[in-house]
What we know:
The chain has strands spanning 4-7, 10-12, 18-24, 33-39, 46-52, 56-59, 67-72, 77-82, 91-101, 104-109, 113-117. By secondary structure, the protein is mainly beta.
Amino acid sequence: xxxxxxxxxxxxxxxxxxxxxxxxxxxxxxxxxxxxxxxxxxxxxxxxxxxxxxxxxxxxxxxxxxxxxxxxxxxxxxxxxxxxxxxxxxxxxxxxxxxxxxxxxxxxxxxxxxxxxxx
Length: 119
């Protein structure tokens, strides 16, 4: 089974940058569609950035131009580069891995990492 471990969260001032990492325990990591989601207190979990079919990337409107998702298949790791951070970006960020097996979509989630943007 796939295990996901996020790291890189922490406290940063508005306008600052942060880079999140998600390490996967899967040698076929390149076959999975990876994504990042976040959840703030009182809110539902929302999409931040995710890989889709055709090697496309789906970004939330609120982060377009500021966040970038990327991967290193040799290291089984996906990253989320966050620039120009705002207090509204404060949330727990979750790594997601998706794969289709026998017509069923299987999702795996990390435990989350806290990102706090405050002065």
